[in-house]
Amino acid sequence: MSYVVYSADPVLPLRDSNGVRSVVKLERVDPLTADAGSGPSFDPMLATWVGGLDGFSVPILNGFRLLDIPAGTYSLYLYAGESVGDTTDFYLSVNSQPYSLKSATPTGALTFVENDNYVLFNNLVLSSGSVLDIRVLGFLAGLQLRRQ
């Protein structure tokens, strides 16, 4: 197996669109080790990724949690960090509800294209203290949580 230990803390504060630390936190749930890499891309966000493969090139399910989200209605963008043609499956659960599934299959698009290099979970109505559980089967290159 070719795993690299994450270099950052298990719980990280996210930054807002101005680069200022926000109250929203990202928690790594499992595994605490994963493949990580970088490569050329039209956008720096898609040039690095976290995820994991077992010894047979089969994706490992990685878990993340968004915590301390202020009440409001949000859109969640999850960006795929796969090679062209390699599908990433994204699962989202809001407050322990059943998971929703969306998949992205990159084509090498040089712009952001929904279900190609990102998926969108839209109109998430969250109360204070809501928790978003994210499972990624493949590689996660980035995320954005936008208040509508």
Topology pattern, helix = H, strand = E = EEEEHEEEEEEEE
The biggest beta sheet reads: 6 strands, antiparallel
CATH C-level class is Mainly Beta
Total count of strands: 12
Helix content: under 10%
Strand order of the largest sheet: 1-4-5-12-7-10
Q: What spatial form do the alpha-carbon principal axes imply?
A: globular
Cα-atom radius of gyration: 15 Å
Query: So how many helices?
Result: 1
- The chain-level structural class is mainly beta
Q: What is the residue-averaged pLDDT?
A: 84
Strand content: over 45%
Tell me the CATH topology.
Jelly Rolls
How many angstroms does the end-to-end distance come to? 41 Å
User: From the coordinates shown, what is the CATH architecture?
Assistant: Sandwich
Low-confidence stretches: 1-5
- Overall tally of structural domains: 1
Give the gist of this structure.
The chain is mainly beta. The chain contains one helix and twelve strands.
Can you describe what's shown?
With 148 residues, the chain is mainly β. The chain has one domain (4-147): Jelly Rolls (Sandwich). Helix content is 3%, strand content 53%. The chain has one helix and twelve strands, in the order E-E-E-E-H-E-E-E-E-E-E-E-E. The chain has one helix spanning 44-47; strands spanning 4-5, 11-15, 21-30, 33-38, 48-51, 61-67, 72-80, 88-94, 100-104, 118-126, 132-137, 139-147. The strands form two sheets. Strands 1-4-5-12-7-10 form a six-stranded antiparallel β-sheet. It has a six-stranded antiparallel β-sheet with strand order 2-3-6-11-8-9, with no helix packed on it. The longest helix has 4 residues, at 44-47. The radius of gyration is 15 Å and the shape is globular. The model is unreliable at 1-5 (pLDDT under 50).
